[in-house]
Amino acid sequence: MIYAGRMPVTVLLVDDEPLVRAGLRAILSAQPDIEVVGEAADGAAVIPLVRQLRPDVVAMDVRMPLLDGIEATRAVLRTVDRPPKILVVTTFENDEYVYEALRAGADGFLLKRARPAEIVHAVRLVAEGESLLFPASVRQLAAEYGDGDGRGNPAARAALERAALTEREAEVLRLMTRGLSNAEIAERLVVGTETVKSHVSAVLAKLGARDRTQAVIAAYESGFVAPG
C-alpha cells in the first residue's frame, strides 16, 4: 500500500452529475488509504468547501453550468492558502478545456470512463506529486492546443530564458516531460533520489511552476521540447 502508516489522502468530488459523484465515491471510498470528505455539484461551491475541509485532492469536472473547472481551478489557486492538488475529470480526452485547465494550474486529468484501478492510481499519483499523470496525453494536448509551432510562443520562450536552468536542471526537465518519476530520473542519471528532488525543486522555482505538470506545460509552450 502506497500510504501505509500515513494519513489517508482526502478527496473532494465536484461534478454536476450525481451519478458520477456516486461512482467516484464508491470507487475511492473502497480504498483504505483514500477518504472522500465532501461533494459539490458546481465549481462555484469549491472555494468554501476547500477552506472548510482542506482536502488533499479535488476531483473536479471540467464542464459545469455555473463555474467550470477551469475558472474554479484559477479561483482556488488564487485565493486559497496551501491549495489542494486538482485532478480534472472529463468525458473527452482530446479536449481544449482540459488543456486550458492544465494551463490554469490543474495537476492532471482523468477520463470519466477510466477503470476503477486507473481512477485510484490517478488520485494517488497526483497526491504524491512525483510523477506526471498520463504524459503521452499531455503531450498530445500540447501539440494540438499549445501556443506556437514548436518554437514556442514568445512569452513562454522568454520566461524559460530568464529561468536560466543549469545543464543538469534542463536534463531533469526533459525527463520530467517524459513522465519519469524522481526515482526513475535518479536511476537514469545515476544520482540519488534526494539529488533529483533538489533539481526538481530548483526547476519549479525558476520556472515559477507550482508542480511538475506546470513545468512540463511550460517546457512545451516555450519550445524547450517539441510536443509532437
Automatic annotation (TrEMBL):
The keyword Lyase does not apply. GO terms for molecular function: DNA binding. GO terms for biological process: phosphorelay signal transduction system; regulation of DNA-templated transcription. This is DNA-binding response regulator. The modification 4-aspartylphosphate is found at D61. The lineage of its organism: Bacteria, Bacillati, Actinomycetota, Actinomycetes, Kitasatosporales. The keyword Transcription applies. It comes from the Bacteria. PROSITE patterns: HTH_LUXR_1, HTH_LUXR_2, RESPONSE_REGULATORY. InterPro entries: CheY-like_superfamily (IPR011006), NreC/VraR/RcsB-like_REC (IPR058245), Sig_transdc_resp-reg_C-effctor (IPR016032), Sig_transdc_resp-reg_receiver (IPR001789), Tscrpt_reg_LuxR_C (IPR000792), WalR-like (IPR039420). Residues 158-223 form the HTH luxR-type domain. Residues 10-127 form the Response regulatory domain. Keywords: DNA-binding, Phosphoprotein, Transcription, Transcription regulation. It holds the Pfam family Response_reg.
